[in-house]
């Protein structure tokens, strides 16, 4: 009984935000009369939130190093504008334009990373300057006008779906992808558990473990089935999954990832242990620049236009997502997966409140309270955890 | 009125899973210096937190009697109002405020919220005189040394009309002179009728000033020794603390010393911030394989700066001089280069500079040697677990498993994690800066044994320490520094505390 209680306590910390996400989803599912989990709305949720989720992945890395990036919304807008000029005005091929855009994003990141890492100006100030600077540049290059429309191929980035084979009404590719993903996930979990047991680490009791596997497998397949019964797998979902997997891997399994956590946890100790702290900080900002560029491209493709006001407040959503997902404002703590969950919490809230017909005014206020509540909950849990 | 100013009766404090204090009794007489001794984790700090109200009434069992009446403190303010003041090991001063402002922080000389600066300055001056600190009360606290800051803390305690002063490891960060001053001040307070509780690992100080000593072990009161007779010596105290005789505080070792591995020549380093100020002045030294070399010196003599500047220029500017390893000149331009050249530096401040406290043991151990664990930048986490487990067993790190956060470990175990990290990096030259600071007697012995073993493996070990007995106990050869210069070099046989002290204070000490 005692161990079960402890288990529950530990796990509520680990899965707290997932539980919150589920509760929010159930709540909106009920008050929208089932609209939230309609296949078309699920698909919309992904399309609507993809650019924030991409930013959140980059942002959580920045936050883990103990910094912040306020400029990502402006950078996304600027890159969108540059892409539009290349594709619409200069008629460059979309692939070339995308590559150049990503390089531009990386250079912007390098510019900010230089000031933060080598000149040691606080990131808050550097990126606040960047937020103004790149918003200004966006308006200058666009001359205050929107540029549209993008070539059809480029629009597919945000609005396209993976083409299906056969003609059965439901999308087979999506269902197949769900099954393959489930199998990979199960194998991975079992291997992990075996390894943990071997080294005598705490593992979930087998009953709970089985329940967890069944639940997650059910969610994955229900999700892909929903997508299948509308239009299939959105291109953007694949891009997102690839990014999530790559970044989770980098953060957990590579030397670079460890160095990022170490730097955020204790910069001085990391430096004396041979971590090249300046270099790591620099590259985290370069990465953030590239992610902001990807986000800007997705948003431009979705809107099918580059506008001077694109990306406004994106930085706040991305930062909120990271913190809701358990990242620590002092650095050293946070996960890519957590940031994604945080982003989804915000996304479902937005979507659900829109479905109910709440105005932007109410939406803003409620999102603010949710952010505060999420972080307060996290801190409360940590205090309880450390006292025990 | 009772003869005791403070009686703590049958105090029991339990945390989930552990009893930190079990029926502890402590009686402090009016106007005495009462020391509290025990290994780390024995419950000294917990007991003091109960006393001061950090753990409020109701969260523990037992009674606290102050001047004969039962107290039920709900917070620190209430205990301070009665004159019970704790000065913690980590000083709680605000560096950008002046001495006077710090002294009256939370207790401002003010009327209706408006500061009375005259009274603040006058009062501060008076208090500074009492503690024997001749500084302008307007001076920023950050700009004076640690020893003086300690005195400011005491002045602050005096401003609260202190009756019972509790000092937690007050001399841990002080050099011999400042420690001496502080102890004299405690004796002075005693004359004025202020009672003191002293928590310290430095047994020579404890036995010098205490009237009585209460020994805690594993959350229980072991005994209270009366020191006024003068029959109790340090070994007797240690026996109480560890529950066994520690006949030899330093493990035996027969050194096998080889070739010179590192030679430092004409090493000069300038201060990081104050241009033109030499911190290390033309220092030359060498160390051989299998040798343990000590660097003695007062705080501020440049010991740490020397070590850090050699270790990849982690400290200092305009560094000149040459380093030779195995006769070949090396540069050590960056910390990474130093690590590649086989250097390791274990810092004096393991919490600030040595560990990532929010990370677990495993991750801390592997940090420096990550590239050894990685194939094409991907970490082999099975191997990582094996390495950490291996270190845990070899260095006897006491922990349920290697996924414990290092922030939750005791000082001795934290130090073992830091050592593990560097041992895994397989250096040839280890620089250990205060390797046993704030570590209890039992764990110290284990650390010495590890140091000996490293030397026996043919590594060169450089030990920096403020504790002369320690330097004398483990080193084969000792360099002495004073004011940034090497003032002496003594072999194990010729060395004594007196000779070292003489060299340490040459041309002004710090």
Total number of domains of chain A: 2
Overall, the morphology of chain A is: globular
CATH class of the largest domain in chain A: Mainly Alpha
Second rung of CATH, namely the architecture of the largest domain in chain B: 3-Layer(aba) Sandwich
Query: How large a portion of the residues of chain A is in β-strands, by DSSP E?
Result: under 5%
N-to-C order of helices and strands of chain A: HHHHHHHHHHHHHHH
Q: Taking all residues together, what is the mean pLDDT of chain A?
A: 90
Oligomer: heterodimer
Average of pLDDT of chain B: 87
Task: Give the CATH architecture of the largest domain in chain A.
Answer: Orthogonal Bundle
CATH topology of the largest domain in chain A: ABC transporter involved in vitamin B12 uptake, BtuC
Main beta-sheet annotation of chain A: none
Number of continuous helical runs of chain A: 15
Approximately what portion of the residues of chain B adopt beta-strand conformation?
25-35%
How far from one another are the termini of chain A?
17 Å
Amount of helix of chain A: over 70%
Tally of DSSP helical segments of chain B? 18
* Largest interface between protein chains, with number of residues from each side: A-B, 27 and 36 residues
C-alpha termini separation of chain B? 48 Å
Write the layout of secondary structure elements.
The complex is a heterodimer of chains A (388) and B (510).
Chain A: H1 2-31, H2 39-64, H3 72-89, H4 94-118, H5 123-142, H6 152-159, H7 172-198, H8 206-230, H9 235-253, H10 255-265, H11 267-272, H12 277-303, H13 314-324, H14 336-356, H15 360-387
Chain B: E1 4-15, E2 18-29, E3 33-37, H1 44-52, E4 61-66, E5 69-71, H2 76-81, E6 84-87, H3 99-103, E7 110-111, E8 114-115, H4 117-130, H5 146-159, E9 164-168, H6 176-191, E10 195-199, H7 203-209, E11 212-217, E12 220-226, H8 234-242, E13 260-270, E14 278-288, E15 292-296, H9 303-310, E16 317-325, E17 328-330, H10 335-340, E18 343-346, H11 350-354, H12 361-366, H13 370-373, E19 374-375, E20 378-379, H14 381-394, H15 411-424, E21 429-433, H16 441-456, E22 460-464, H17 468-474, E23 477-482, E24 485-491, H18 497-504
Parallel strand pairs in B: 3-10, 3-11, 6-9, 9-10, 15-22, 15-23, 18-21, 21-22
Antiparallel strand pairs in B: 1-2, 1-4, 4-5, 7-8, 11-12, 13-14, 13-16, 16-17, 19-20, 23-24
Helix pairs in contact in B: 4-5, 15-16
